[in-house]
Amino acid sequence: MSRLNYHHLYYFWQVSKSPSLTEAAEKLHISQSALSAQIKQLEHNLGVALFIRQGRKLVLTDVGRRVLAYAQDIFNTGEELENFLQKGTASTNQHITLGVQSNLSRNFIESFIAPLLQSDNVSFSLSSRGITDLLNGLVNHELDLALTNRPILSESKETTWQNQLVARQAVAIIGPYGEKPPLPFPQGYSDKKWIVPGKNTDIRSAFESFCATHQYYPDIKAEVDDMAMLRLLARDSGYLSVLPAVVVKDEIESKQLEDYEPIPQAFESFYAITVPRKFAAQSVLDLINTAMTTYSVEP
């Protein structure tokens, strides 16, 4: 392959960030035809297609998204170098992209991103996705970090997932405020109905083991995979539920719900998933370390 032309790569970077080729050309002060020719020359030199045309829009290919990730690292670092040479200090402004598993507790997500909201130098994009879309986003460098409730195993040599446990939330029996049975489980629970997480989850397995230990057979009214929906049903149904107290912290504080008692050895774990990158965003590393410190998780 011929030597990479960074001038062409810079044009590619600007086109990728712009709503249209026309706007990119205006920003770069060249004609649209000249800019198009430069991009085609870059594709020719690299031997890959970076864009495909959909209607009047240019859309990045899978390879194009990966090339964009490298281009962002290269030119963001170049801008920091320019700033350092001109002002004597490196720019600390960063933008990061975060993905969160769609069924995670919104309260936990809010607490996780709180440091970003308080930072003057970091902006971020946040999207809620299923696991498959999260992993694709990481592989294609669309996401800097994905937040999930389970680690991801690497199934091939091509992709290595970096899993960092950032928090563990204790799971408890949650019920209507003021209706807690006076005696410990299972006494006083014989006539209770339950709304529980779906099967094949760590919380459900821990709850079933807890019930088996006490020879208690729960009357399960509903199984719910989504924590946001489980929160609403716990609040509005009048039934008992099994979930981390953080999920319903607002309802507990307002005395709509009550934490009856913890379930021994039952936790919901939260993982920050990343892929190896040569230039990891410092704000992402800081976010992970802050969460681990906040929730007292050992590295």
From TrEMBL:
Which superkingdom heads the taxonomic lineage of this protein's source?
A: Bacteria
Which InterPro entries does the annotation name? LysR_HTH_N, LysR_subst-bd, WH-like_DNA-bd_sf, WH_DNA-bd_sf
Q: Where is the HTH lysR-type domain?
A: 4-61
The molecular function terms of the Gene Ontology recorded here are:
DNA-binding transcription factor activity; transcription cis-regulatory region binding
This protein's record includes keyword Transcription = yes
The record, for Pfam families, names: HTH_1, LysR_substrate
List keywords of the entry alphabetically.
DNA-binding, Transcription, Transcription regulation
Similarity annotation:
Belongs to the LysR transcriptional regulatory family.
PANTHER family, A to Z? HTH-TYPE TRANSCRIPTIONAL ACTIVATOR BAUR, HTH-TYPE TRANSCRIPTIONAL REGULATOR
Task: State the name under which the record lists this protein.
Answer: LysR family transcriptional regulator
Q: What is the lineage of its organism?
A: Bacteria, Pseudomonadati, Pseudomonadota, Gammaproteobacteria, Oceanospirillales
